[in-house]
Amino acid sequence: MAFMEWNDSLSVRIDEIDQQHKKLIELLNTLYDAMSEGKGRDVLADIIKELKDYTVYHFGTEEKYLREFNCDVYEEHKAIHDKFVNEVLEFEKKFLEGSLILSIEVATFLKNWVSNHILGDDKKYIECFKANGL
What we know:
- It is built from 5 helices and no strands.
- By secondary structure, it is an all-alpha fold.
- It has one domain (about 15-130): Hemerythrin-like (Four Helix Bundle (Hemerythrin (Met), subunit A)).
- Helix 1 packs antiparallel against helix 2, helix 1 runs antiparallel to helix 4 (about 105-120) and helix 2 runs antiparallel to helix 3 (about 75-95).
- The mean pLDDT is about 90.
């Protein structure tokens, strides 16, 4: 069983963004599996980098549409994204310095953040995106 599974409640009804969310979940599962299997530091560092990079890419997609469609949640959404990226950058930095050990708590934090963000924050832009033909 996967650490985090996609289900219809996570859908924002926009295929491009749903596909990106599925990829983020896949990367979280890859990180969790690697941790569970006791993979080496280099493998974990690569997975963390991929997760970080893909998160930045995904946030860029959402923010592009929020700006393009002049959605009223843009500023709030961007601030939430920026805060999370900074947290992940700090997490990555501490891991690479050796002052943070990957743990179930870290994986659970990431899982909960992604789930809560999709179910809460991302659902706020659906109507704006749909009204603009996305």
